[in-house]
Structure formats: C-alpha cells, structure tokens
Amino acid sequence: METPSDENNKIREPFLSSSPSKGGFRTLPFILATEAFERVATIGLSPNMIVYLRREFGMETAKAANVIFFWSAATNFTPIIGAFIADSYMGKYRMIGFGSVLCFLGMILLWSTAIIPQARPYCDQFNTICEAPTTPQLLLLYCSLGLISIGAGGIRSSCMAFGADQLDKRKNPENTKTLQSFFGWYYATITFSALIAVTLIVYAQDNLGWGMGFGIPVMLMFGSAVSFFLASSFYIKLKAKTSLLTGLAQVIVASFRNRHIELPSHATTEVYHIRKGSMLQVPSEKLRFLNKACVIKDPQEDLTSNGDASNPWSLCTVDHVEDLKALMRVMPLCSAGIMMSVNVYQGSFMVIQAGTMDRHVTPNFEIPAGSFSMFMMISIVVWIPFYDRIALPLASKIKGKPVRLGLKQRMGIGLLCSGASMVASAIIEYTRRKIAIEEGLSDEPAAVVHMSALWILPFYILGGLAEAFNGIGQIEFCYSELPKTMSTIAANIYGFGTFISNLVASFITSTVDNVTKRGGESWISSNMNKGHYDYYYCLLAGLSMLNFIYFLACCKAYGPCHGDNKNQAEKSKKGDYESIDDS
C-alpha cells in the first residue's frame, strides 16, 4: 500500500518522480500503441493457425487443435506470472520492455518457418503428401509460439496498470472519473486492434501467402517495441516492492502456524507487527483468522533489534495481512465473470451455425463464417465511446447532476447480457434446426437453410455488451479495491479468469457431449441438424442465471465499493452528485 515513506522515496529519487514533467496524458498514446500493435500481431496469428499447422506442418486436426489450445492457454496465463514479477521484482516498465523484445523474437522465429523451406516439412502443392516434421522443426515452431506467449504476457500484464500509473492522482477529486475513462478507452483500443487482426491480417494470410501474412505481425511488433521506448524519459516508473508473492505466501504460512493462539480482544499497536512508516496500525476485523499472522507473541524472540520480524514465515506485517485480505475479498466477485467468458467462447459453434445459413448481404457478397466475430468487437468499440461521451453526459444533463453506474452494477449488467445472448442463441438455433428439418436437410449438415445468418447477430452484440460492462467494470473494480502495490495483479485478474474460462468451457462441452450421446445423438453433434445445440444453449443460459444469483450474494457479502464511496463522498460535499447505490 502507498505510505508516507513511499511518497518520500519518490521525491528523493528523480527517476521515480511523479512531478508534472513526468506522466500525464501525453504518455498514453505510446503505451496504448504498444499493446495495440502487440494485439494486432498476436491475435492476427490465431484464426488461421490451425490451417497453417495442417497445411505446412502436416499435422492432424486433433494435434493441431491441441497445439493451439495450449498456446492460447499459455498466452492467457503468462500475464498472471508477469504481473507478480512486475509488482515484486522488475517493475512494470522493465516488464513491458522485456515482453516487447521476447514477443518480437518469437514473431521472427515463426516468420522463419514460413519463408525458409528447411524450417518446415515438405508438402506438395496440393498438400496431399506431407513429410512428418522433424524434431528441430517442431522445436523451432514451439519455441516461437512459447516466446510469443511469454512476450505477450509481459506486455499485457503491465501495460494497463502502467498507463493508469501515469494518471493516478488519488488526491484529485476527478481521479475516479479519469481512471474510468482510461479503462474504457484502453478496452476499446485493444478491441479495435483485435478487429483489425481478424480482418486485415487474416486477409493477408489468405491472399498474400504465409510469408507476408506472418511478416506483417513482425513489423507490427517492431513498431510496438519502438513506440514504447520512444517515450521512456516521460514515464512515471514506480519502484517494485520486494517479493509481493512471497509476502502473501508468508501470511498464509504464518496464520497456519499461529492457528492455536488467541487473538487479543482489544487491538493495540503493541500487539501487532507494524511496518515502519505504515499508516495501518491494526488489522481489520474481516477475515479475522488471518490476523494471527501478525500477532507478536514474544517481542524478544519475534523481533530483531531494529524491529523487523526475526522469522517472516512466523510473523508478518499488518500490511501483508491486509494485502492478502483484499485479494481474497475481490476473488468471489471476479469469479462470477468466468461464466460470462464461457458464453463468449461459444463463438466457435456460431461459426459452424453461420456456415449452414444464408450469409449473403448482397447478391454478390457474403460474409465469411469466421468473420462474424467482428460484430462482437464492433459492438464493444461502438458502445464504449457512446456510453462515455453520449449516454452519461445526456443522463447527467437530464438529471441536472453528474450520473454514473456503480462498479458492481456494471458488472451485473454484463452478466445479464451474457445470459441473454445464450437465450437468443437457443431461440435462433431452434428456429434454424426446425427449418432444416422441414426442408429435408437432416442428413446434410453442410447444406444451407433458407434463413439469414444475420439472425445470429444478437449473440455477438449482447456478448460484446457483456464484455464492455463486465470486463471493464471488473478491471476497474480490482484496480480500485486492491492496494496500489498490487496494481499489476489487479489489472490481470480478469485475464486469469479468461484462462480459467477456457478450461471450464472445455469441461462443460466434454461433459455435455459424453452424457447426451449415451441416449443417441449428442446435443453437440457434428451434424447440427440432428443435434440439439438449442438445448445446450439453454443449459448455458440456466447456468448463467445461477451464476447471476451467486454474483448478487457476493455483492451483498462484499458491501460497498471503496472507489464508489470515495467518489460519492467527494461529490456530495459539493452537493452536485447523483449515483445509484450498488452496495
């Protein structure tokens, strides 16, 4: 947590200064461009990667899918590791720079597999005969994907929190509003980058070849690194704390070791171990069992001559205890977002569904089935500026006072939109399947029914709104509720939820397939006309409703958000604030 001593350190050390000559809005274009270029580069590789592995490396579909699954899981998980390292050892600035270089090197290695014939197995021009890839060829491929994942983790783990550091002035009454706008525009930027990736980069791969299709991401990653280092002298570079992860682990171990001691009935500064210069003198009463980790049993044995713990695995500071409490308190609310991401991942089934429907927009143009995901990204990109620049100002003008939605309200709206997307998908699939049966296409899964594919847009639009409300709300919630020292972890909790969602979505899909096919045709059969994807979507809608009830229970248990309460208190002094209480 920020303490007076921390502030003094910033003043004494010029390179950590937060003076007007450092930070501010002028640094944001460089930081946002860094992650935007990285997202375009890495996301642009994903859609056609299974095609590349099958055609150029001669992999079976199942093996290629497994490679992509582990690559995707690693890319979602590495930001969590990067967040801990950045907060504890390297700092956010160094982590982003390190990630940019590694990701660039990984892109070069992957590009080399496309432009150097010896770097991949031989396949004839029709891809009917392919040699098995050699161990060095596979090693080069896997190393390239691994470096891309690690590099992307370094960038994504710290970019958003690093940008927030440039703006975060907690004594400024407008601080909450400024950060809220930043988080919204950050999310819009990376979403727009993903939109560019799944359209232009994929087009280049399909029409200009793999060499150009992989070469463009290399150039983009080079631009990402250059963009970031250009503004080095203007950044606020907060110093990393020593071993944050170790400190949290020490609290768990110490509280277990001290589980048999009695907590004092009256908290005093003599009872608890307090870090020098800390503003926290006693631990809070919530999650009280953790307070045993900072209880001084015998000052002569537990403390050194300078007041430090003689064994930090048996005695921790109040600050460390409160850090762990803060993390434990936000996790239940954040875990409700996992189900939202599970619903979003059903887009792969939507691609198959769109392929069996009329995708023509004009008589001579039809939307590729794999490109329908762009509508989800468009809905996010359009909604965020609309909400920030039109909806809120208009509501404030009507009320005559500033109006905004609370953090938990926005997260809840996102969960409802996610559940609604599954209800819409179930209705649309029920109708599509009925038409297919009436047209006698039950045994022709690839046949196109007389129904416009535009009917599946509600899934993508509602899914985009769910991400816009819940995704941004959850990121802002974690950033405002967790201590300043855990800002990078706060920015990556949502990413960790996405990683878990991959596993949960896979588990649900496998379970439904194994259970329902015992009675005949699986709900998620390869033949959509014989399966019952509408039942499957209804199941997800039901799970989403249960998840929303769980979210409401977590909201009640958590209480009011600190960020909302602080902003409301500041505004109420002026008598010009109106907000809906979301406690």
From TrEMBL:
The keyword Cell inner membrane does not apply. The keyword Transmembrane applies. It is found in: Membrane. It is a multi-pass membrane protein. The chain crosses the membrane at residues 68-86, 98-119, 139-164, 185-204, 210-236, 330-352, 372-390, 411-428, 448-466, 535-553. Keywords: Membrane, Transmembrane, Transmembrane helix. Its main location: membrane. GO terms for biological process: transmembrane transport. GO terms for molecular function: transmembrane transporter activity. One of its GO terms (cellular component) is plasma membrane. InterPro entries: MFS_trans_sf, POT_fam. It holds the Pfam family PTR2. Belongs to the major facilitator superfamily. Proton-dependent oligopeptide transporter (POT/PTR) (TC 2.A.17) family. This is Protein NRT1/ PTR FAMILY 1.2. The gene is LOC107943800.
